[in-house]
Predict the structure.
Amino acid sequence: MSRTDMSHNDELTQLTGGTALASDAWLDRYGDALMNTFGRPQRVLVRGEGCYVWDADGRRYLDMLGGLAVNALGHAHPLLVSAVTSQLATLGHVSNFFASPPQIALAERLLELLRPDVAGPASTARPADDVSDAAGRGTGPGTGRVFFTNSGTEANEAAFKIARRTGRTKVVAADGGFHGRTMGALAMTGKASIREPFEPLPGGVVHVPFADVDALRAAVDDETAAVVLEPVQGEAGVVPAPDGYLAAARQVTQEHGALLIIDEVQTGIGRVGHWFAHSADGVVPDVVTVAKGLGGGIPIGACIGLGEAADLLGPGSHGTTFGGNPVAAVAGLAVLHAIERDNLLDNVRTVGRHLADGVHALEHPLVDRVRGRGLLLGIGLTREVAPQVAAAALDAGIIVNPVNAGTIRLAPPLVLSTAQAEEFLAALPKVLDAVHATAEEADG
Ligand SMILES: *Cc1c(COP(=O)(O)O)cnc(C)c1O
């Protein structure tokens, strides 16, 4: 183990109360000490390597969820470990009264990746639903600015404040959209059941049906500050925007002088086989938010303003203590570097296609259709048994997410290999069979 000095390891082991406890004993302590916002977690995980994690009972799992689209490079990736530890050993934190090289370099790199000629990988094969035209889009270096945050919801709070700085207060968001749990992001979130208990929320947000261009056209007017959309609605069950929807949103916002905010917190940073999901749609937004995959597990998010939207927040109008922290920023640099160096965008497209085709090829009666792009996939089920499928998968050593009653979400590390995808596909029939048999029995 080169990760930490052994004597320090002993001390850390004592701080966490020893490593000999079983999952259940840990979870009892969890239940007593943690707020019950997530229910009882399924397992206590103690270690990870690549696309595998181990629980406190020594069982190994294939991680097809990747910390919810976060562990882009899998677990304990050597480049990320080394980048973070050496930065922490050099300079771990400075206030925003001071700057640090990783923060600046990461902001520049993100802006570079948002340049249309970079964002639309013209030379690589793309899925049929995924046609991009890199021509004629006009951001260049120096035409954007980044505000770093620690999470997705904070990136969207910054975007919300940018929208208010237009002088208008109306924001159009989509039903089913998810933008986070803090009050501004929650106001934009499209699921009434998580929004309503916390009303009154910041006002001015209206929701329209997702993927409905006419509804969007009807809702956006000259009072509209911004339209906020996800290219693929992740929390709604992996629902991709249909072809042309984002382009239509770009057109209607432009007509009315409103901003287009694209929430790429889940879809960005290579998740769908492009640096950003919207790049495949040939649109240039005003604001892009990212978070989940950017730090590969180190908390970091970013609100990126392009063109005039880059200058709507000025001195005194927004801030954060931790945002742009050098350790988090260097993690982002390491993730972006590894994605490029190891051709992970190609890997995401290839392995994602293999997974989707493989699930379809099972022709299992519980599987309706696979939705999504790249390595953000939703296996639509023919019955509302996703929680049972996820539980059976866990028992079979595979982590997946029942994002809603009828959908299993996959968001594995971008480094998932074809062999590991095969491992998942080989295990899936038995998992589905067991749940299917139980459901049929219940039907009588
Ligand atoms: C997860 C998510 C968020 C919220 O991110 P947090 O880091 O949990 O605050 C916002 N938008 C989208 C699209 C997400 O998937």
